[in-house]
Amino acid sequence: MSSSEHPSPKPGVMDIAAYVPGRESAPGVAKVYKLSSNESPLGPSPMVTEAFAKRNVDLAAYPDGSAHELRQAISRAYGLNPGNILCGNGSDELLGLLCQTYLAPGDEGLFTQHGFLVYKIQIMAAGARPVSVPDTDLTASVDAILDAVTRKTKIVFLANPNNPTGTYIPVSEVRRLHAGLPAHVILVLDAAYAEYVRRNDYEAGIELVSANPNVVMTRTFSKIHGLAGLRIGWMYANEAIIDACNRVRGPFNVNALAIIAGAAAIGDRAHVERAVEHNDAWLGRVCDALEGLGLKVTPSVGNFVLIHFPKTAGKTAAEADAFLSSRGYILRRVTGYGLPDSLRMTIGSAEANLGALDALKEFMA
């Protein structure tokens, strides 16, 4: 082998922009308030701790490869057939599984302009062509998505509500989108923030999946259930899609502790309601305070807000980020989402929210 020869990744891999998660630290700051990853300020259900205390988990043994206990708990919580449920190492893994299973070189995967970055990454990793569809007022446009569909389209990803914008489209529009798609195209409804939405015209996707063989709904335990550290996601789909993805996924993709924790968490409806009530109490309050500082905020139905900063020197998003970090408040830069003048702020604890607002007041003064 000559010195110029070396292992090379397959074509397209080095074109992928790696996902960069929200920052966790602020050097030189005694106490850090992380408001960059949309984690739950309430943490996990106390039932999770109780479940761990009652179970003697053999860490030397492989977990149940079918995550049976977790799928049964999900099926009870939502009234679904466990045969239509597939669990994963976070919903991120399931998004990747769908791409690996249904996309090939020459195919196209669609996602919205400011949609979750993982869609593009997984489409490209499968060797397919990513197609970004323009939003209208930072909201998914059904007409634009349908206009972008070609004979090569195999998957359409729709985050509803969307991260990082916090916007959503009503179920009537989701149904119109599905009705306009060819039967061979899979519509993936990423409902990671569904539990937070309190709008009468919203549906997470269960009914649409139940009635159609080409719709998939993905969900996560990382947000409202406060279990981001254990990486638990699930999807609801037609059994043919579940069967195909099961052939591609790793045999023990959900660890033993995650199975126990997820099963316990999804049964604690009171904890979920507490998290919703906390979010409802603070979402409007945070938005009003930000607008009172002269900042534009995109109306959000999730557990976060997208804050838009002026381009004026001294008041930009980058300068706000640096200022907040110096005081221990870490928000999310969203330049990678095509929003260089914005920051995303998670609705955190009362202390974190008030502190971040005070710091922004000082910054905008």
What does this structure look like?
By secondary structure, the chain is an alpha/beta fold. It has two domains: 13-43 and 270-364, Aspartate Aminotransferase, domain 1; 46-268, Type I PLP-dependent aspartate aminotransferase-like (Major domain) (Aspartate Aminotransferase, domain 2, 3-Layer(aba) Sandwich), CATH 3.40.640. 37% of the residues lie in helices and 15% in strands. The protein has helices at residues 46-54, 68-78, 90-102, 117-125, 142-148, 171-180, 206-211, 239-248, 256-265, 269-292, 317-326, 350-364; strands at residues 33-34, 85-88, 108-112, 129-133, 153-159, 186-190, 215-220, 233-236, 296-298, 304-308, 329-330, 332-333, 342-346. The strands form three sheets. The chain has a seven-stranded mixed β-sheet with strand order 2-8-7-6-5-3-4, sandwiched between helices. Strand 12 (332-333) and strand 13 form a beta hairpin. The model has no long low-confidence stretch (mean pLDDT 96).
At CATH level 3, the topology of the largest domain is Aspartate Aminotransferase, domain 2
The name of the CATH architecture of the largest domain is 3-Layer(aba) Sandwich
Strand ordering within the main sheet:
2-8-7-6-5-3-4
Please tell me the total number of domains.
Answer: 2
The stretches of 5 or more residues where confidence is low (pLDDT under 50) are none
The named CATH superfamily of the largest domain: Type I PLP-dependent aspartate aminotransferase-like (Major domain)
Which overall shape is indicated by the principal axes computed on the Cα atoms? globular
How many DSSP helices? Answer: 12
Question: Strand tally, please?
Answer: 13
